[in-house]
Hints:
The longest helix is centred in the first third of the chain and has 25 residues, at 3-27. The chain is globular and about 60 Å long. The protein is α/β, with parallel strands linked by helices. The protein has helices at residues 3-27, 64-72, 86-95, 123-128, 200-218, 254-276, 316-319, 346-354, 372-375, 452-469, and strands at 39-45, 74-80, 114-115, 133-138, 157-160, 183-186, 189-193, 224-229, 283-289, 320-326, 335-337, 341-342, 387-391, 394-400, 403-406, 409-415, 424-430, 433-436, 485-486. Strand 16 (409-415) and strand 17 (424-430) form a beta hairpin. The chain contains ten helices and 19 strands.
Amino acid sequence: MNLHTFLRASRTLLVMALLANSFVTLSRTPTVQAKRLPNIIIVYADDLGYGDIGSFGATGYQTPHLDRMAKEGVKLTDFYVAQAVCSASRAALLTGCYSNRVGILGALFPNAKNGLNTDEMTMGDLLKQKGYATAAIGKWHLGDNPQFLPTRNGFDEYFGVPYSNDMWPKNPDKGNTVYPDLPLIDGTEVIERDPDQAQLTTRYTERAVSFIERNVAANKDKPFFVYLAHSMPHVPLFVSDKFKGKSIDKTGRGLYGDVISELDWSVGQLLATLQKHKLDKDTLVIFTSDNGPWHLYGDHGGSAGKLRGYKGTMFEGGVRVPFLARWPGQLPAGKTMTMPAMTIDLLPTLAEITGASLPPSEKTPIDGRSIWSHLRGKAKGDPHEALYFYWGRELQAVRSGKWKLHFPHPYVEHSPTNGGRRGTQVTRQIELSLYDLSQDIGESNNVVAQQPDVMKRLQALGETMRGDLGDSLTKRDATRGRVAGQLKP
């Protein structure tokens, strides 16, 4: 090869390399090609059941603003939480991991010695990479010590209560347990003890609106992230005077209907604020719940609709929750989708939308998968081969496609009591059971004998997960689990 030929070939290779690099770079840019990064609002209700809003079949009261979200956005019918209990559910949402992977189980109590590890990447951490202003408002429940609070976990601001609103001295159902006065926190400082819980929904909403408007005034082109985690409708139920006794009460929903009506109002205030500042087309709004209804409290608990089970169980009524997403111009309007997805999928979805970097998979793997293409109607099939449902450290169920397999495990069965009083519960046992959710949403017809191949496939999936995150029932230790944050002396 002469010198001229060599130089020409070298230039050709260089151009090809540059083009290839450009292609890779373009493929890693955000899917959304907009004039600015989108604002993001996630509204997380507490103990709101699958059948508790209008677009999912609620009756006895109205939810016009949530219904508007369904009409103007996307509704997922098969959306799940990782565990049907407060702290574990929130850890999974914010980190994109099964709660067992990040060491948060059950519901943390006041003065807990552990909390969310600050080494974990939260949604707040993720979005701050891209210059977002971030606020966590409402119930946190991932550790009440200052080292565990939102301002140490990716959020610029925090306003709310650090755990469930029933963890207070006035709770009549806790026997000899004595809780401290419920603290209302701003940043890391307690600003009130035992706040008027009838005003919590309103105060959370006002703080969210204030955060949006302050950021718009400072720099309208700077994106913001609001994580609004309401304390309601977790018992004890409270509602402000503007909604007390105002819901339609044809089915005896009473106070519960008032509470849901006020949550719907809260969503309406957010949507109105976006419209006021012409941010509708620049903002993704998501509404969902942390687990199914607390059926133990009868008329003060919610409804799972046609689903079996409730909070604290791995039946559909415990882990399947309503999901709505609205973003005019980016998401289709009035679209209903049935693919199984989970709260762990929201963090990687936000990463794809914004171009933010996920944590390194070799050191801190996450379990979620981006569902952005699915939400836009651009992808078919399920984002996961399977979804896994733990209760504590016990793997109790696996869903793959339309199939859900329950491993033998104990579960609680409720005898609810009305009027805000706790009912009674007994422990039952479910044997190995397989359900076709496309035909049997109520998990009533066990087809394990008719589908041995499906059963074996899901059993094998479960065994693989046991090798990863362990299983207390089969005495398996986690091999890739991480530890929660521990209180420093």
